């Protein structure tokens, strides 16, 4: 991982709403889960692809040259595109974001890299 998730303090504040993974332009991008492609297009200056799955979870990858179209059903592990040029981490990377009920959460919650917090009693 090149850069971790940094939660914004409010929906409009600065933060890093995903993780950046080391990748080179032209590398294969695989679907992170089963779902339906809900967006393929350019946001600001980079190509973005989003997949919606059950339970109101949306994953987004960028920059990606899509090989799928809006409405396509995809299966986890199947190729959905290739890493495109550009992005926000030179020389290149793959940004992976996850939204749950419209709010950005750490993708590591879904990749098994982050343990859930457990609250313990403070006294007897």
Number of distinct helices: 1
The general outline is: globular
Low-confidence parts: none
Average predicted local confidence, pLDDT:
89
Structural class: mainly beta
Give the tally of β-strands.
10
Major beta sheet, specifics? 7 strands, antiparallel
The run of helices and strands is EEEEEEEEEEH
> What percent strand?
35-45%
Query: Nearest-angstrom radius of gyration?
Result: 16 Å
Measured between the Cα atoms of the first and last residue, the distance is 41 Å
User: What fraction, in percent, of the residue positions are helical?
Assistant: under 10%
How is this structure best described in words?
- By secondary structure, the protein is mostly beta strands.
- The chain is 3% helix and 41% strand.
- The chain contains one helix and ten strands.
- The strands form two sheets. Strands 1, 3, 4, 5, 7, 9 and 10 form a seven-stranded antiparallel beta sheet that branches. A three-stranded antiparallel beta sheet has the order 2-8-6, with no helix packed on it.
- Strand 9 and strand 10 form a beta hairpin.
- The mean pLDDT is 89.
Topology record:
Layout: E1 19-22, E2 28-30, E3 35-43, E4 46-53, E5 57-62, E6 64-66, E7 73-74, E8 79-83, E9 93-100, E10 103-105, H1 108-111
Antiparallel strand pairs: 1-9, 2-8, 3-4, 3-7, 4-5, 5-9, 6-8, 9-10
Features:
seven-stranded antiparallel beta sheet, 1 helix, 124 residues, mainly beta, single chain, 3% helix, 10 strands, three-stranded antiparallel beta sheet
Task: Describe the structure concisely for a colleague.
The protein is mainly β.
